[in-house]
Structure formats: C-alpha cells, structure tokens
Amino acid sequence: MAEKTNAVRLVQRSNIPCREAFYDFDENDLNGNHAARAIGMAPEQVFKTLVARGDRTGINVFCIPVCCELDLKKAAKASGDKKVELVAVKELLGLTGYIRGGCSPVGMKKRYPTFMDETCILWDEIAVSAGARGHQMILSPEALASLVDAALVDIIQ
Q1: How many domains does the chain have?
Q2: Which partner for 19 in 68, 72, 138, 152 could form a disulfide, CB atoms 3.0-4.6 Å apart?
Q3: pTM, full prediction
Q4: 107-123 per-position pLDDT tens digit
Q5: Domain holding 59: CATH number?
Q6: Which residues pair with 136 in a beta bridge?
C-alpha cells in the first residue's frame, strides 16, 4: 500500500470519512477516464482538478467530472473574471505543489478560490486525486466542498 499523501492526511484530520483507491497509470496517458474505469466509478463521479488564472482574481481551482470540459466563460463568471485561462503544466508544481495527473483540490501550497461543478451533489461520494498519480480519494462532495471552501457552480460545457 502506498504512503498516505498530505491530501489524505488533511481529509482524515478533518474527520471526513474517506476511502482510497489506487490504480496503475501510464505517464503518457493521464486521462481521467482511465482513472474512472480503473477504480470502477462512473466518469461523471470522478473529478479532475484544473488550475486557471483569471485576469482579475489570479489563480483559481476548478473541479469538474473527468468526462467533461471546463467552460472558460462560465469559469470566468464564477470567479469574477472577464477571462480565465488554464495555467501551463510547467507552472502547476510551483503554484500547487502537485504535478499533472496528481493535482488535488486538498492541500495545495496556497489556498486558492475553488469551484466545484454543481453536478457533484448528484452523488453520495465522488473521487478526486489524493495528490499523487494513481491515487484517488473517495468522499462526500459536500464534505470536500466544505473542507476547501468551494462554491458549487455550473462550470462545464
């Protein structure tokens, strides 16, 4: 069994029930749909974490189902920006402490405004990265939103 990540420790320290799921991944294919299949969950129930820069507010975090695309106009509106753009992969580690394919909304280097797609509440539990490739944590979307102080909004295409 892999070592507990900082994200998992933070969730557990907050007394939020959480299960972990581990899976094999391919460095050349970090597609979230693979993660969903590998852990046996619907792609609509597994959420990827995207980091974007707004023209007014700076860095924002968006969590959306792995089978969906972020609607940049809706994301900008939610964050109070005129325009948002995803940050370059090379910036991700410095901004969040996480690498592509292992970016969790929990335990980033700095607390950024976070937005979760409102479809998360359709599920009793969702999966998000536990902070490492091939490692997901499965927990209540409401508990996750509360922990990271996320707004639940419509941000998918």
Answers
A1: 1
A2: 138
A3: 0.95
A4: 999 999 999 999 999 99
A5: 3.90.960.10
A6: 21, 129
Task: Identify the DSSP state of 33.
Answer: H
Average pLDDT for the chain = 95
Residue 142 lies in a domain: yes
Q: Is residue 22 part of a domain?
A: yes
b or e along 98-117 (b: 16 or more beta carbons within 10 Å of the residue's beta carbon)?
Answer: beebbbbbbbbeeebbbbbb
Q: Residue 92 to residues 15, 38, 100: CA-CA distances in angstroms?
A: 28, 25, 7
Which residue type does 139 have? Answer: L
Which of 3 and 37 is assigned the larger pLDDT? 37
User: What domain range includes position 111?
Assistant: 6-153
Q: How far apart are the first and last CA of the chain?
A: 37
- Beta bridge partners, 86, equal 52
What CA–CA distance (Å, rounded) separates 94 from 108?
10
pLDDT (tens digit, 9 = 90+) per residue, 16-27?
A: 999 999 999 877
Pairing of strands 58-65, 46-54: antiparallel
